[in-house]
Amino acid sequence: MTTYRSEFYEWIKKVRKTNWTIKSLEQRREHYAHIWYSIGGPTYDRTGGHTNDPFYVRGMNALDKMLEIDRKLDELETVIVEYNKFYDSLPKKFQLILTNVMFHEPSMVSIAYSLHCSRNMAYKLKEQLIDKWANRHK
């Protein structure tokens, strides 16, 4: 039986994974862009086409990879846009809790310390955050 609490944590995992995947894809895209930009210009001192040049073929393969990565990035952006929209709709204290849960995974004691409240209050605020997440589409 899944509850909205476990669905919230699954969503957190999905956003984290998407964030890391986007960073990885962007690094790969930079690598392929470097290969693409390293293609030499045409040479006019020899006969024949430019397509036999191994650097040209490698560059065209890099262009194909860049386009594929761009397509994947466009698909993943929807998850990040949804997260940002939810984050922007929250008051500051809930934004702080969500940021801590998302990126730092601290103890509730440290979250309470950063909010200047008791640990019990931090737990209540975290539960309210999960309720807001569950009701975001209603």
Characterize the structure shown:
This protein is mainly α. It folds into two domains: 75 residues; 49 residues. 77% of the residues lie in helices and 0% in strands. The chain contains five helices and no strands. The mean pLDDT is 84.
Quick recap:
With 138 residues, this protein is mainly alpha-helical. The chain has helices at 4-37, 54-88, 92-104, 108-115, 119-134. It contains 5 helices and no strands.
Name a few traits of the molecule.
138 residues, mainly alpha, 5 helices
List the helices and strands and how they pair.
Elements: H1 4-37, H2 54-88, H3 92-104, H4 108-115, H5 119-134
Helix pairs in contact: 1-2, 3-5, 4-5
The count of DSSP E runs of length 2 or more, i.e. the number of strands, is 0
Broad structural category: mainly alpha
This entry's quaternary arrangement is: single chain
| Mean pLDDT over the residues | 84
3D shape = elongated
Strand content: under 5%
Number of domains: 2
Largest sheet: none
Number of DSSP helices? Answer: 5
Helix fraction by DSSP (H/I, runs of at least 4): over 70%
The ordered string of helix (H) and strand (E) elements is HHHHH
Distance between the termini: 22 Å
Low-confidence stretches: none
C-alpha-based Rg, rounded = 23 Å
